[in-house]
TrEMBL record:
Biased amino acid composition, Basic and acidic residues: 238-252
Composition-biased stretches (Polar residues): 1-12, 263-276
Record-stated family: Belongs to the WD repeat PROPPIN family.
Source organism, top-level taxon: Eukaryota
Any one of the GO CC terms: vacuolar membrane
Cell compartments where the protein resides: Endomembrane system; Vacuole membrane
Name under which the protein is recorded: HSV2
Topology in the lipid bilayer: Peripheral membrane protein
Biased composition (Low complexity): 31-49
Biological-process GO terms, alphabetical: protein transport
Pfam families cross-referenced by the UniProt entry: PROPPIN
Species of the source: Candida metapsilosis
Keyword line: Protein transport, Repeat, Transport, Vacuole, WD repeat
Disordered: annotated span: 1-55, 229-276
Length: 522
Protein backbone atom coordinates (compact mmCIF):
# COMPACT_ATOMS: atom_id res chain seq x y z
CA UNK A 1 0.00 0.00 0.00
CA UNK A 2 1.60 3.32 -0.98
CA UNK A 3 2.15 5.92 1.65
CA UNK A 4 2.74 9.63 1.46
CA UNK A 5 3.37 12.49 3.80
CA UNK A 6 2.91 16.21 3.48
CA UNK A 7 4.47 19.06 5.39
CA UNK A 8 1.73 21.61 5.99
CA UNK A 9 3.99 24.68 6.06
CA UNK A 10 2.51 26.01 2.84
CA UNK A 11 1.09 29.32 3.97
CA UNK A 12 3.82 31.41 2.31
CA UNK A 13 4.36 29.28 -0.76
CA UNK A 14 2.72 31.76 -3.14
CA UNK A 15 4.83 34.73 -2.09
CA UNK A 16 6.51 36.48 -5.03
CA UNK A 17 10.17 37.22 -4.74
CA UNK A 18 11.57 40.73 -4.52
CA UNK A 19 14.71 42.02 -6.18
CA UNK A 20 17.01 40.71 -3.48
CA UNK A 21 15.48 37.24 -3.82
CA UNK A 22 16.16 37.36 -7.54
CA UNK A 23 19.86 37.94 -6.93
CA UNK A 24 19.97 34.92 -4.65
CA UNK A 25 18.05 32.66 -7.02
CA UNK A 26 20.55 31.06 -9.41
CA UNK A 27 17.92 29.88 -11.85
CA UNK A 28 16.74 33.46 -12.25
CA UNK A 29 20.16 34.67 -13.32
CA UNK A 30 20.20 32.79 -16.61
CA UNK A 31 19.80 35.36 -19.33
CA UNK A 32 20.32 35.40 -23.07
CA UNK A 33 23.32 37.24 -24.44
CA UNK A 34 22.24 39.31 -27.43
CA UNK A 35 25.53 38.60 -29.21
CA UNK A 36 26.55 34.94 -29.45
CA UNK A 37 30.01 34.01 -28.24
CA UNK A 38 31.75 32.32 -31.16
CA UNK A 39 34.99 31.52 -29.31
CA UNK A 40 35.85 28.70 -26.94
CA UNK A 41 35.91 30.97 -23.89
CA UNK A 42 32.96 32.18 -21.88
CA UNK A 43 32.30 35.06 -19.54
CA UNK A 44 30.76 34.39 -16.14
CA UNK A 45 28.31 36.85 -14.67
CA UNK A 46 29.81 39.28 -12.18
CA UNK A 47 26.77 38.97 -9.94
CA UNK A 48 27.72 38.22 -6.31
CA UNK A 49 25.86 34.92 -6.61
CA UNK A 50 28.46 33.65 -9.08
CA UNK A 51 31.74 34.84 -7.60
CA UNK A 52 32.72 31.33 -6.49
CA UNK A 53 32.79 30.18 -10.12
CA UNK A 54 36.04 32.04 -10.66
CA UNK A 55 37.75 30.24 -7.79
CA UNK A 56 37.05 26.61 -8.54
CA UNK A 57 36.53 24.37 -11.57
CA UNK A 58 32.90 23.36 -12.15
CA UNK A 59 33.91 19.70 -12.54
CA UNK A 60 37.28 18.61 -11.11
CA UNK A 61 39.36 16.62 -13.58
CA UNK A 62 39.21 13.45 -11.45
CA UNK A 63 35.42 13.61 -10.99
CA UNK A 64 33.08 11.52 -13.14
CA UNK A 65 30.11 12.98 -15.02
CA UNK A 66 27.19 10.60 -14.52
CA UNK A 67 24.57 12.10 -16.87
CA UNK A 68 23.92 14.95 -19.29
CA UNK A 69 20.42 16.09 -20.25
CA UNK A 70 19.19 19.02 -22.32
CA UNK A 71 15.99 20.76 -21.31
CA UNK A 72 12.89 20.71 -23.49
CA UNK A 73 14.01 23.36 -26.02
CA UNK A 74 17.76 22.56 -25.84
CA UNK A 75 18.41 26.10 -24.59
CA UNK A 76 20.21 24.76 -21.54
CA UNK A 77 21.49 21.47 -20.18
CA UNK A 78 22.07 19.87 -16.80
CA UNK A 79 24.99 17.71 -15.71
CA UNK A 80 24.87 15.21 -12.85
CA UNK A 81 28.17 14.18 -11.27
CA UNK A 82 29.65 12.56 -8.17
CA UNK A 83 29.27 15.67 -6.01
CA UNK A 84 25.98 17.15 -7.24
CA UNK A 85 24.81 18.86 -10.40
CA UNK A 86 25.37 21.82 -12.72
CA UNK A 87 23.14 23.79 -15.09
CA UNK A 88 24.54 25.54 -18.17
CA UNK A 89 23.23 27.85 -20.84
CA UNK A 90 23.76 25.94 -24.06
CA UNK A 91 24.90 28.71 -26.40
CA UNK A 92 26.81 30.71 -25.48
CA UNK A 93 28.07 28.07 -23.07
CA UNK A 94 27.89 29.50 -19.57
CA UNK A 95 27.70 27.87 -16.15
CA UNK A 96 24.69 29.24 -14.30
CA UNK A 97 24.02 26.88 -11.40
CA UNK A 98 26.42 24.79 -9.35
CA UNK A 99 25.18 22.51 -6.59
CA UNK A 100 27.63 20.41 -4.60
CA UNK A 101 26.10 18.30 -1.85
CA UNK A 102 27.99 17.67 1.37
CA UNK A 103 28.43 13.94 1.94
CA UNK A 104 26.65 13.02 5.13
CA UNK A 105 25.23 16.53 5.47
CA UNK A 106 21.86 18.12 4.94
CA UNK A 107 22.84 21.21 2.97
CA UNK A 108 24.62 21.95 -0.28
CA UNK A 109 28.31 22.68 0.15
CA UNK A 110 29.97 26.08 0.34
CA UNK A 111 30.96 25.78 -3.32
CA UNK A 112 27.40 26.42 -4.44
CA UNK A 113 26.60 29.66 -6.21
CA UNK A 114 24.32 30.62 -3.34
CA UNK A 115 25.56 29.53 0.07
CA UNK A 116 22.42 30.18 2.04
CA UNK A 117 21.58 27.24 4.30
CA UNK A 118 18.35 25.39 3.71
CA UNK A 119 17.02 22.34 5.53
CA UNK A 120 16.77 19.36 3.20
CA UNK A 121 14.46 16.40 3.38
CA UNK A 122 17.29 13.91 3.10
CA UNK A 123 18.92 11.49 5.47
CA UNK A 124 22.00 12.74 7.38
CA UNK A 125 23.79 9.73 5.88
CA UNK A 126 23.02 10.76 2.30
CA UNK A 127 25.78 10.99 -0.27
CA UNK A 128 26.32 13.46 -3.09
CA UNK A 129 26.13 11.72 -6.50
CA UNK A 130 23.37 12.61 -8.99
CA UNK A 131 22.95 9.84 -11.57
CA UNK A 132 20.05 11.36 -13.49
CA UNK A 133 18.71 14.90 -13.82
CA UNK A 134 15.82 16.29 -15.86
CA UNK A 135 14.96 19.97 -16.11
CA UNK A 136 11.43 21.38 -16.20
CA UNK A 137 11.91 24.01 -18.90
CA UNK A 138 13.61 26.92 -17.05
CA UNK A 139 11.91 26.64 -13.69
CA UNK A 140 13.69 25.92 -10.43
CA UNK A 141 12.27 22.37 -10.38
CA UNK A 142 14.49 19.48 -11.45
CA UNK A 143 13.89 15.74 -11.31
CA UNK A 144 16.92 14.04 -9.79
CA UNK A 145 17.90 10.46 -9.00
CA UNK A 146 20.95 9.41 -7.04
CA UNK A 147 23.87 7.71 -8.73
CA UNK A 148 27.59 7.10 -8.76
CA UNK A 149 29.71 5.60 -6.01
CA UNK A 150 27.98 7.59 -3.26
CA UNK A 151 24.42 8.46 -4.35
CA UNK A 152 22.69 11.50 -2.90
CA UNK A 153 19.37 9.64 -3.10
CA UNK A 154 18.56 5.94 -3.55
CA UNK A 155 18.60 4.87 -7.19
CA UNK A 156 14.97 3.75 -6.85
CA UNK A 157 13.83 7.16 -5.59
CA UNK A 158 12.78 10.10 -7.76
CA UNK A 159 13.08 13.52 -6.15
CA UNK A 160 11.61 16.75 -7.50
CA UNK A 161 14.26 19.20 -6.29
CA UNK A 162 13.36 22.82 -5.63
CA UNK A 163 16.62 24.61 -6.29
CA UNK A 164 15.39 27.93 -4.95
CA UNK A 165 14.86 26.48 -1.48
CA UNK A 166 17.58 23.78 -1.75
CA UNK A 167 15.18 21.04 -0.73
CA UNK A 168 12.99 18.20 -1.97
CA UNK A 169 9.49 19.24 -3.00
CA UNK A 170 8.16 15.81 -3.96
CA UNK A 171 9.52 12.29 -3.98
CA UNK A 172 8.46 8.90 -5.34
CA UNK A 173 9.99 5.57 -4.38
CA UNK A 174 9.80 2.38 -6.45
CA UNK A 175 10.83 -1.24 -6.15
CA UNK A 176 13.13 -0.89 -9.19
CA UNK A 177 15.80 1.64 -10.19
CA UNK A 178 14.56 4.81 -11.91
CA UNK A 179 16.22 4.87 -15.34
CA UNK A 180 14.78 8.06 -16.82
CA UNK A 181 12.31 10.84 -16.04
CA UNK A 182 10.30 13.08 -18.38
CA UNK A 183 8.65 16.26 -17.13
CA UNK A 184 5.96 18.60 -18.34
CA UNK A 185 4.16 21.26 -16.37
CA UNK A 186 1.33 18.82 -15.68
CA UNK A 187 2.90 15.36 -15.88
CA UNK A 188 5.73 13.35 -14.34
CA UNK A 189 6.71 10.29 -16.39
CA UNK A 190 8.90 7.70 -14.68
CA UNK A 191 10.72 5.08 -16.76
CA UNK A 192 11.61 1.78 -15.07
CA UNK A 193 13.18 -1.34 -16.56
CA UNK A 194 9.90 -2.84 -17.79
CA UNK A 195 7.20 -0.26 -17.20
CA UNK A 196 6.42 3.42 -17.52
CA UNK A 197 4.31 5.18 -14.90
CA UNK A 198 2.62 8.53 -15.48
CA UNK A 199 1.78 10.84 -12.56
CA UNK A 200 0.12 14.19 -12.43
CA UNK A 201 2.43 16.97 -11.25
CA UNK A 202 0.78 17.61 -7.89
CA UNK A 203 1.27 17.41 -4.16
CA UNK A 204 1.03 14.53 -3.55
CA UNK A 205 1.49 13.14 -7.08
CA UNK A 206 -1.36 11.00 -8.40
CA UNK A 207 -0.62 7.91 -10.44
CA UNK A 208 -2.61 8.20 -13.66
CA UNK A 209 -1.67 5.18 -15.76
CA UNK A 210 0.97 2.48 -16.15
CA UNK A 211 2.32 0.97 -19.38
CA UNK A 212 4.23 -2.28 -19.66
CA UNK A 213 7.28 -2.33 -21.92
CA UNK A 214 9.82 -4.78 -23.23
CA UNK A 215 13.02 -4.75 -21.19
CA UNK A 216 14.18 -1.13 -21.48
CA UNK A 217 17.60 -1.01 -19.86
CA UNK A 218 18.49 2.36 -21.38
CA UNK A 219 15.33 4.07 -20.11
CA UNK A 220 14.30 4.96 -23.67
CA UNK A 221 11.28 7.30 -23.91
CA UNK A 222 10.45 10.80 -25.11
CA UNK A 223 7.59 13.28 -24.84
CA UNK A 224 6.49 16.23 -26.96
CA UNK A 225 6.55 19.63 -25.30
CA UNK A 226 3.98 21.65 -27.24
CA UNK A 227 2.08 23.98 -24.93
CA UNK A 228 -1.07 26.01 -25.44
CA UNK A 229 -1.36 29.74 -24.98
CA UNK A 230 -4.80 29.19 -23.49
CA UNK A 231 -3.27 27.49 -20.48
CA UNK A 232 -1.27 30.52 -19.42
CA UNK A 233 2.05 28.74 -19.71
CA UNK A 234 5.03 29.93 -21.70
CA UNK A 235 5.28 28.09 -25.00
CA UNK A 236 9.06 28.26 -25.12
CA UNK A 237 9.35 24.98 -26.93
CA UNK A 238 7.37 26.20 -29.92
CA UNK A 239 10.09 28.62 -30.96
CA UNK A 240 12.47 27.51 -33.66
CA UNK A 241 15.54 28.65 -31.76
CA UNK A 242 15.94 27.98 -28.03
CA UNK A 243 16.61 30.83 -25.67
CA UNK A 244 19.04 30.88 -22.80
CA UNK A 245 17.61 31.25 -19.34
CA UNK A 246 15.70 34.51 -19.15
CA UNK A 247 13.93 36.54 -16.52
CA UNK A 248 11.17 37.65 -18.87
CA UNK A 249 8.87 34.64 -18.51
CA UNK A 250 5.34 34.90 -17.30
CA UNK A 251 4.39 33.00 -14.18
CA UNK A 252 4.25 29.29 -14.89
CA UNK A 253 1.70 27.63 -12.69
CA UNK A 254 1.44 23.93 -11.93
CA UNK A 255 -0.96 21.80 -9.76
CA UNK A 256 -1.61 18.78 -7.30
CA UNK A 257 -1.81 15.00 -7.90
CA UNK A 258 -3.21 11.68 -6.45
CA UNK A 259 -1.33 8.74 -5.03
CA UNK A 260 -0.02 5.89 -7.12
CA UNK A 261 -0.07 2.20 -6.28
CA UNK A 262 3.52 1.40 -7.23
CA UNK A 263 5.31 4.02 -5.22
CA UNK A 264 5.77 5.52 -1.81
CA UNK A 265 5.08 9.23 -2.19
CA UNK A 266 6.20 12.11 -0.02
CA UNK A 267 5.73 15.84 -0.36
CA UNK A 268 7.75 18.53 1.33
CA UNK A 269 5.83 21.71 1.99
CA UNK A 270 7.13 25.18 1.17
CA UNK A 271 7.78 28.10 3.47
CA UNK A 272 9.11 30.44 0.78
CA UNK A 273 8.33 31.14 -2.83
CA UNK A 274 9.25 28.54 -5.43
CA UNK A 275 10.40 30.94 -8.12
CA UNK A 276 10.68 29.98 -11.73
CA UNK A 277 13.06 31.92 -13.91
CA UNK A 278 12.16 35.55 -13.52
CA UNK A 279 8.88 34.86 -11.75
CA UNK A 280 7.49 33.75 -8.42
CA UNK A 281 6.24 30.29 -9.28
CA UNK A 282 5.36 28.08 -6.34
CA UNK A 283 4.54 24.41 -6.37
CA UNK A 284 1.10 25.29 -5.04
CA UNK A 285 0.51 27.73 -7.90
CA UNK A 286 1.62 25.08 -10.36
CA UNK A 287 -0.79 22.64 -8.80
CA UNK A 288 -3.64 25.14 -8.84
CA UNK A 289 -2.98 25.75 -12.53
CA UNK A 290 -3.05 22.02 -13.19
CA UNK A 291 -6.35 21.63 -11.37
CA UNK A 292 -7.92 24.34 -13.53
CA UNK A 293 -6.58 22.70 -16.67
CA UNK A 294 -7.85 19.26 -15.67
CA UNK A 295 -11.37 20.39 -16.58
CA UNK A 296 -10.28 22.02 -19.83
CA UNK A 297 -11.39 19.91 -22.79
CA UNK A 298 -9.03 21.85 -25.07
CA UNK A 299 -5.83 20.74 -23.35
CA UNK A 300 -2.92 20.57 -25.80
CA UNK A 301 -1.76 17.11 -26.84
CA UNK A 302 1.22 15.66 -25.03
CA UNK A 303 2.54 12.71 -27.02
CA UNK A 304 4.56 10.09 -25.15
CA UNK A 305 6.59 7.50 -27.09
CA UNK A 306 8.38 4.48 -25.64
CA UNK A 307 9.21 0.84 -26.45
CA UNK A 308 6.29 -1.57 -26.72
CA UNK A 309 5.80 -4.95 -25.10
CA UNK A 310 7.34 -6.78 -28.06
CA UNK A 311 10.85 -6.39 -29.45
CA UNK A 312 11.11 -3.55 -31.96
CA UNK A 313 7.71 -2.04 -31.19
CA UNK A 314 7.01 1.59 -30.28
CA UNK A 315 3.96 2.64 -28.27
CA UNK A 316 2.44 6.09 -28.86
CA UNK A 317 0.15 7.66 -26.27
CA UNK A 318 -1.59 11.04 -26.13
CA UNK A 319 -1.44 11.80 -22.41
CA UNK A 320 -4.06 14.53 -22.75
CA UNK A 321 -6.63 11.95 -23.85
CA UNK A 322 -5.36 8.77 -22.25
CA UNK A 323 -7.46 6.98 -19.66
CA UNK A 324 -6.93 3.52 -18.15
CA UNK A 325 -8.10 0.97 -20.69
CA UNK A 326 -7.76 3.32 -23.67
CA UNK A 327 -6.07 2.03 -26.80
CA UNK A 328 -2.60 3.12 -27.87
CA UNK A 329 -0.95 3.31 -31.28
CA UNK A 330 1.69 0.66 -31.85
CA UNK A 331 4.40 0.77 -34.52
CA UNK A 332 6.44 -2.25 -35.54
CA UNK A 333 9.52 -0.16 -36.18
CA UNK A 334 12.44 -2.61 -36.08
CA UNK A 335 13.24 -6.32 -35.93
CA UNK A 336 15.66 -5.74 -33.05
CA UNK A 337 15.12 -4.04 -29.70
CA UNK A 338 14.71 -0.26 -29.63
CA UNK A 339 17.94 1.48 -28.59
CA UNK A 340 17.00 5.12 -29.03
CA UNK A 341 14.05 7.23 -30.06
CA UNK A 342 13.01 10.87 -30.10
CA UNK A 343 9.90 12.86 -30.90
CA UNK A 344 9.65 16.26 -32.56
CA UNK A 345 8.36 19.16 -30.50
CA UNK A 346 4.86 19.07 -31.98
CA UNK A 347 4.53 15.34 -31.42
CA UNK A 348 3.83 14.46 -35.06
CA UNK A 349 6.95 12.37 -35.82
CA UNK A 350 8.95 9.78 -33.92
CA UNK A 351 12.45 8.72 -34.98
CA UNK A 352 13.87 5.42 -33.80
CA UNK A 353 16.96 3.24 -34.01
CA UNK A 354 17.44 -0.37 -32.95
CA UNK A 355 20.39 -1.87 -31.09
CA UNK A 356 21.96 -2.58 -34.50
CA UNK A 357 22.12 1.14 -35.24
CA UNK A 358 22.28 0.78 -39.02
CA UNK A 359 18.86 2.20 -39.94
CA UNK A 360 16.94 5.22 -38.66
CA UNK A 361 13.19 5.17 -39.24
CA UNK A 362 10.75 8.04 -38.83
CA UNK A 363 7.04 7.32 -38.41
CA UNK A 364 3.94 9.45 -38.13
CA UNK A 365 2.58 9.35 -34.58
CA UNK A 366 -1.01 9.80 -35.77
CA UNK A 367 -1.14 7.28 -38.65
CA UNK A 368 1.93 5.12 -37.72
CA UNK A 369 2.96 5.39 -41.39
CA UNK A 370 6.66 5.11 -42.22
CA UNK A 371 7.72 8.55 -43.45
CA UNK A 372 11.48 8.16 -43.87
CA UNK A 373 14.10 5.44 -43.68
CA UNK A 374 17.73 6.50 -43.43
CA UNK A 375 20.91 4.46 -43.37
CA UNK A 376 23.60 5.44 -40.88
CA UNK A 377 26.02 2.75 -42.07
CA UNK A 378 26.42 -0.98 -42.62
CA UNK A 379 28.29 -1.88 -39.44
CA UNK A 380 26.69 -2.08 -36.01
CA UNK A 381 26.73 1.08 -33.89
CA UNK A 382 25.21 2.34 -30.66
CA UNK A 383 23.02 5.39 -31.33
CA UNK A 384 23.70 7.46 -28.22
CA UNK A 385 21.73 10.63 -29.06
CA UNK A 386 19.16 11.69 -31.64
CA UNK A 387 17.19 14.96 -31.96
CA UNK A 388 14.92 16.74 -34.43
CA UNK A 389 15.79 20.33 -35.33
CA UNK A 390 13.42 23.00 -34.04
CA UNK A 391 11.81 23.50 -37.46
CA UNK A 392 11.55 19.73 -38.11
CA UNK A 393 13.64 20.06 -41.26
CA UNK A 394 16.53 17.89 -40.04
CA UNK A 395 17.39 14.99 -37.77
CA UNK A 396 20.75 14.82 -36.00
CA UNK A 397 22.10 11.39 -35.05
CA UNK A 398 25.20 10.66 -32.96
CA UNK A 399 26.70 7.19 -32.47
CA UNK A 400 29.51 5.54 -30.54
CA UNK A 401 31.50 5.72 -33.77
CA UNK A 402 31.80 9.44 -32.90
CA UNK A 403 30.14 10.35 -36.19
CA UNK A 404 27.48 13.06 -36.29
CA UNK A 405 24.98 12.59 -39.14
CA UNK A 406 22.47 15.20 -40.34
CA UNK A 407 19.51 13.93 -42.36
CA UNK A 408 17.26 16.21 -44.38
CA UNK A 409 13.54 15.69 -43.83
CA UNK A 410 12.41 17.86 -46.73
CA UNK A 411 12.69 15.24 -49.48
CA UNK A 412 9.36 13.66 -50.29
CA UNK A 413 10.52 11.91 -53.47
CA UNK A 414 14.28 11.35 -53.09
CA UNK A 415 14.49 9.02 -56.10
CA UNK A 416 13.26 11.66 -58.56
CA UNK A 417 15.23 14.49 -60.05
CA UNK A 418 14.80 17.72 -58.13
CA UNK A 419 14.78 21.20 -59.59
CA UNK A 420 17.83 23.40 -58.88
CA UNK A 421 16.04 25.42 -56.22
CA UNK A 422 15.21 22.18 -54.33
CA UNK A 423 18.59 20.53 -54.80
CA UNK A 424 19.77 22.21 -51.63
CA UNK A 425 20.64 19.95 -48.67
CA UNK A 426 19.72 16.75 -50.48
CA UNK A 427 20.35 13.41 -48.79
CA UNK A 428 22.73 11.05 -50.55
CA UNK A 429 22.04 7.80 -52.38
CA UNK A 430 24.25 4.98 -53.60
CA UNK A 431 26.30 5.88 -56.66
CA UNK A 432 24.96 2.85 -58.55
CA UNK A 433 21.31 3.73 -57.99
CA UNK A 434 20.91 5.68 -61.23
CA UNK A 435 22.38 2.78 -63.22
CA UNK A 436 20.12 0.05 -61.83
CA UNK A 437 16.83 1.93 -61.60
CA UNK A 438 15.67 0.24 -64.81
CA UNK A 439 15.58 -3.10 -62.93
CA UNK A 440 12.39 -4.24 -61.19
CA UNK A 441 12.36 -2.98 -57.63
CA UNK A 442 12.17 -6.53 -56.28
CA UNK A 443 15.53 -7.34 -57.88
CA UNK A 444 17.38 -4.38 -56.39
CA UNK A 445 18.96 -5.12 -52.97
CA UNK A 446 17.60 -2.87 -50.23
CA UNK A 447 21.08 -1.51 -49.55
CA UNK A 448 21.14 0.18 -52.98
CA UNK A 449 17.81 1.86 -52.23
CA UNK A 450 19.13 3.38 -49.02
CA UNK A 451 19.24 7.08 -48.22
CA UNK A 452 22.32 8.42 -46.41
CA UNK A 453 22.80 11.68 -44.53
CA UNK A 454 23.47 14.76 -46.64
CA UNK A 455 26.40 15.70 -44.40
CA UNK A 456 28.33 14.10 -41.56
CA UNK A 457 31.51 14.51 -39.57
CA UNK A 458 33.68 12.16 -37.55
CA UNK A 459 34.19 14.23 -34.41
CA UNK A 460 37.29 12.22 -33.51
CA UNK A 461 39.31 14.46 -35.81
CA UNK A 462 38.95 17.17 -33.17
CA UNK A 463 39.84 14.96 -30.20
CA UNK A 464 42.89 13.22 -28.83
CA UNK A 465 42.99 9.44 -28.81
CA UNK A 466 41.12 8.05 -25.83
CA UNK A 467 41.36 4.77 -23.98
CA UNK A 468 37.66 4.37 -23.15
CA UNK A 469 34.46 4.82 -25.10
CA UNK A 470 32.78 8.19 -24.65
CA UNK A 471 29.11 9.12 -24.88
CA UNK A 472 27.85 12.40 -26.31
CA UNK A 473 24.50 14.14 -25.90
CA UNK A 474 23.32 16.58 -28.55
CA UNK A 475 20.93 19.50 -28.84
CA UNK A 476 20.05 22.01 -31.56
CA UNK A 477 20.87 25.68 -30.91
CA UNK A 478 19.68 26.87 -34.32
CA UNK A 479 18.43 25.22 -37.50
CA UNK A 480 22.03 24.77 -38.68
CA UNK A 481 23.96 24.42 -35.41
CA UNK A 482 24.26 21.41 -33.12
CA UNK A 483 25.90 21.26 -29.70
CA UNK A 484 27.46 18.04 -28.38
CA UNK A 485 28.40 17.60 -24.72
CA UNK A 486 30.78 14.70 -24.05
CA UNK A 487 30.54 12.78 -20.79
CA UNK A 488 34.09 11.49 -20.35
CA UNK A 489 35.99 14.16 -22.27
CA UNK A 490 33.97 16.79 -20.34
CA UNK A 491 33.82 19.18 -23.25
CA UNK A 492 31.15 21.24 -24.99
CA UNK A 493 31.33 21.57 -28.77
CA UNK A 494 29.32 23.47 -31.36
CA UNK A 495 29.11 22.12 -34.91
CA UNK A 496 27.81 24.23 -37.79
CA UNK A 497 26.39 23.02 -41.10
CA UNK A 498 28.18 24.99 -43.82
CA UNK A 499 27.95 25.11 -47.58
CA UNK A 500 31.01 24.08 -49.54
CA UNK A 501 31.72 24.26 -53.24
CA UNK A 502 31.20 20.98 -55.08
CA UNK A 503 33.41 20.00 -57.98
CA UNK A 504 30.50 19.93 -60.43
CA UNK A 505 29.00 23.19 -59.24
CA UNK A 506 26.30 21.53 -57.11
CA UNK A 507 25.71 22.68 -53.57
CA UNK A 508 27.35 20.43 -51.00
CA UNK A 509 27.46 20.73 -47.24
CA UNK A 510 29.86 19.89 -44.46
CA UNK A 511 29.80 20.00 -40.67
CA UNK A 512 32.56 22.00 -39.02
CA UNK A 513 33.38 22.44 -35.35
CA UNK A 514 33.13 26.20 -34.81
CA UNK A 515 33.51 26.43 -31.02
CA UNK A 516 34.41 24.32 -28.00
CA UNK A 517 35.02 24.59 -24.27
CA UNK A 518 36.20 22.31 -21.49
CA UNK A 519 33.69 21.83 -18.67
CA UNK A 520 36.40 21.23 -16.06
CA UNK A 521 37.97 24.67 -16.34
CA UNK A 522 36.77 28.23 -15.97
Amino acid sequence: MPSYKTNDNNHNSNKHIDSSDKINSPLQQLQTNSTKNKSSSTQVSSSPSFTNLRRSSPIPKDLSILCINFNQDHGCFAVGHELGFLVYNTDPIELRVKRNFSIGGNTPSRYNLNTSSTAATTSPLSGSGIGHITMLHRTNYLAVVGGGTNPRFPINKLVIWDDLKRKNSLSLEFDKPVLNVLLSRIKIVVILIDEIIVYSFASPPKKLITFETHRNEFGVADMSVTTSSTTGTTAAATERKPRAYSDTHTNDRLGPVPRGSHASISSAGSTASNASVGSGTSLNSILNHNNKNSNNVHQPSTILVFPGKAIGQIQIVDLAQQQPGSSVNIIKAHKSAIRNLCINKTGTMVASASVLGTLIRIHSTSTTQLLYEFRRGIDRADITSMKFSHDDSKLAVLSDKYTLHIFNLGEEEPEEETSPEHHHQENKHHALTKYINFLPSTLIPQYFKSTWSYCSVNTNQYHQQESELDTGSLGWVSDDEVVIVWQKKKIWEKYTIMEKSGGDGDEEYEIVRTSWKSLDSE
